[in-house]
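Design request, tokens follow.
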């Protein structure tokens, strides 16, 4: 296999680099081709074989290289409904703000459950937010200048509803130095990937999967069961439509619900009148 770019890393990392790589030449760098920001020198592991003098030299030289913005971060918080995603997002945002960072929170305007201008947890805690149809409109709404020069941390709630999630987060963290904290459902009620939340994993710094408590047995709940007959992927709702469940109650509950949905489909095809309100199932299954 032919290597197209060699890892032209500073001595701290390097193996044997006989000549500059295509990559380093493209960057126009001579000895240490990557910028301080690109490798975040503050976070370099300490090499016991490396003297502190050469480390200092490395830091000084690399730190003098230009880079448009310091590197940002992406933190992803997923889990089923009622697992504390919004609560976690809120706590992290508040703690960033307390440490002097300028923060903003965005949620999808599809989620109109509690309050249009705030993210709201299932326990009623609130924080003001921008309710937007997509993330690409945020910079303009917030103000390009304020976005670039003042904003440090961006929280995104209900991330599964944003089609441009990946592009927005990558640009914000890689190019604009923002810390992005993303909360969303990893899976829908059929446990399929939801939106592009999972696409963030390879570009994230941290990924946390939270759990709730199974509404049937009280065990750890990693999945969301939809209690009603609707089959569309996106269906806004709370505890009247969804419940957190453990694996066994997901499997048994989903089996019962799919049978019920199939029965309803068959009967609606026969045009039989049916009371739709009565089609929500309750545990135990
Ligand atoms: N089945 C449930 N119905 C309503 N509220 C619940 C249920 N299970 C847990 N909760 C509450 O929801 C809180 C989490 O809310 P939130 O942070 O909004 O979760 P998420 O954003 O993951 O849906 C929990 O601390 C708990 O008090
Ligand atoms: C499982 C599932 C959920 N939704 C919707 C329901 C809620 O409006 C949000 C999730 O809110 P939460 O903050 O995580 O409680 O998503 C959906 O549209 N489709 C689904 O399959
Ligand atoms: Zn259970």
């Amino acid at each position: 296999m032919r290597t197209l770019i060699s890892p032209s890393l500073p001595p701290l990392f390097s193996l044997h680099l006989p000549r500059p790589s295509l990559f380093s030449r493209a960057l126009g760098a001579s000895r240490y081709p990557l910028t301080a920001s690109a490798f975040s020198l503050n976070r370099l592991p300490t090499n016991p074989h490396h003297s502190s003098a050469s480390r200092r030299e490395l830091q000084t030289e690399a730190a003098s290289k230009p880079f448009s913005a310091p590197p940002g971060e992406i933190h992803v918080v997923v889990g089923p409904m009622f697992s504390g995603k919004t609560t976690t997002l809120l706590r992290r945002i508040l703690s960033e703000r307390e440490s002097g960072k300028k923060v903003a929170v965005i949620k999808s305007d599809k989620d109109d459950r509690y309050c249009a201008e705030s993210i709201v947890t299932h326990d009623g805690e609130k924080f003001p937010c921008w309710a937007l149809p997509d993330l690409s409109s945020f910079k303009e709404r917030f103000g390009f200048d304020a976005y670039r020069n003042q904003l440090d941390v961006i929280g995104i709630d209900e991330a599964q509803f944003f089609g441009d999630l990946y592009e927005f987060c990558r640009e914000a963290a890689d190019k604009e130095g923002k810390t992005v904290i993303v909360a969303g459902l990893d899976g829908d009620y059929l446990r399929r990937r939801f939106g592009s939340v999972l696409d963030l994993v390879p570009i994230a710094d941290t990924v946390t999967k939270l759990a709730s408590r199974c509404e049937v047995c009280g065990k750890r709940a990693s999945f969301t069961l939809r209690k009603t007959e609707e089959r569309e992927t996106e269906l806004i709702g709370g505890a009247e439509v969804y419940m957190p469940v453990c694996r066994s109650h997901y499997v048994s509950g989903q089996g019962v619900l799919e049978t019920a949905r199939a029965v309803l489909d068959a009967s609606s095809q026969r045009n039989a009148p049916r009371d739709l309100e009565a089609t929500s199932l309750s545990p135990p299954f």
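Comment from the thread starter after seeing the answer: thanks! DSSP finds eight helices and twelve strands in the chain.
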